[in-house]
Design a protein that fits this description.
Shape: globular
Largest sheet: 8 strands, parallel, barrel
Bound molecules: ligand PBG
Number of strands: 12
Number of helices: 12
CATH topology of the largest domain: TIM Barrel
CATH class of the largest domain: Alpha Beta
CATH superfamily of the largest domain: Aldolase class I
Radius of gyration: 24 Å
CATH architecture of the largest domain: Alpha-Beta Barrel
Distance between the termini: 43 Å
Order of helices and strands: HHEEEHEHEEEHEHEHHEHEHHEH
Number of domains: 2
């Protein structure tokens, strides 16, 4: 406790009251315990429901999926038990499942054949890349589900970085051109929300300008505004096949986990550049950032419960060390309590089922 903070003195308050009122000294009213018993409101399920401040509903969920080449293929991601890479037809099945479960939106990530990865990440702006194929197929069969596409080059580059390299440096401004092209092909395929996760400076503004110029005035941008250089992305990089490719680390563009004021500057810039929604990532270790961002900007604020968070909970649950269903729901409501409007989570379908069962 810092030397300046002073505990509230109930004793002093009580003495003041006793001087000025005629309440008998042994009357406990207003004297704290036992007048006040915090457990009263908690005694029954109906009462706990009534006083609950934060509630997770299906409307808060975004389900990220991984797509892979082929037909009728589901390949497990070893570091994410229960998560498969899906061929496009299976991704459509997943979208039907999401619609059934009342999940409003999905985010689509590709596993790109290593033979197609190059220095320029050119698959990123191939209008027939896996993500675009999946978006078109899902939009045809399940038009009412929201589709989010990540803008970043890492699933497509031979070096595994989100931007382009000039020499051994990530070249911010050259990367912007590629990212804009990627955003445009995704939008033309039918993506509803463009989600730049690359952390290059100026990307939200560049994408917004290009979308407006191309007449895509309704396309939303959810920026990965405060995205940290995190080891919790490990299993995602396995899922997209970029672990093997990645040379070095992403610390020259993703944020230092030590910082919080910097997150506010990042969010402010993205909002000024035309983001409709902002995101904080990872999730549970960064709840303080979620709260600050929500309080400061009052923007639609999302949080990504990333692959490593999923892997930790699943590993413990599979070992019988944690109650899986309960830690899923507890972690998700924590995001709501911190101020998030919604959560990207690989647990989305499971959480939606648990929410439906609880009714
Ligand atoms: C791509 C991207 C990453 C994630 C989302 N988009 C990985 C990274 O930045 O290295 C991570 C998601 C997760 O771990 O679940 N830039």
């Amino acid at each position: 406790m810092s030397s300046t903070s002073r505990p509230i003195s109930l004793g002093a308050e009580r003495a003041k009251r006793d001087e000025t009122t005629t309440v008998p000294k042994d009357d406990p009213a207003g004297a704290g315990f036992p007048s006040i018993r915090m457990r009263r409101n908690r005694r029954a399920d109906w009462s706990r429901r009534l006083v609950a401040e934060s509630v997770l509903t299906c409307d808060d969920l975004i389900w990220p999926i991984f797509v892979v080449d082929g037909e009728n293929v589901r390949t497990p991601v070893d570091s994410m038990p229960g998560v498969d890479r899906l061929s496009v037809d299976q991704a459509v099945e997943a979208a039907l499942e999401a619609a059934d479960l009342n999940i409003p939106a999905m985010a689509v990530f590709p596993y790109t054949d290593p033979a197609l990865r190059d220095e320029a990440g050119s698959q990123a702006f191939n209008p027939d890349n896996l993500v675009c194929q999946a978006v078109r197929a899902i939009k045809e069969k399940v038009p009412h589900i929201g589709l989010i596409c990540d803008v970043a080059l890492d699933p497509y580059t031979s070096h595994g970085h989100d931007g382009l390299l000039t020499g051994d440096k990530i070249d911010n401004d050259r990367s912007l051109e590629a990212l804009v092209r990627q955003a445009l092909v995704q939008t033309e395929a039918g993506a509803d929300i463009i989600a730049p996760s690359d952390m290059m400076d100026g990307r939200v503004g560049a994408i917004r300008t290009a979308l407006e110029q191309a007449g895509h005035t309704d396309t939303q941008i959810m920026s990965y505004a405060a995205k940290y250089a995190s080891a919790f992305y490990g299993p995602f990089r396995d899922a997209t096949g970029s672990t093997a490719a990645l040379k070095g680390d992403k610390r020259t563009y993703q944020m230092d986990p030590s910082n919080t004021d910097e997150a506010l500057r990042e969010v402010e810039l993205d909002v000024c550049e035309g983001a409709d929604m902002v995101m904080v990532k990872p999730g549970l270790p960064y709840l303080d950032i979620v709260r600050r961002v929500k309080d400061t900007f009052a923007m639609p604020t999302f949080v990504y419960q990333v692959s490593g968070e999923y892997a930790m909970l699943m590993a413990a649950a599979e070992n019988g060390w944690l109650d899986g269903d309960r830690v899923i729901m507890e972690s998700l409501v924590a995001f709501k309590r911190a101020g998030a409007d919604g959560v990207l989570s690989y647990f989305a379908p499971q959480a939606a089922r648990l929410i439906a069962q609880a009714r």
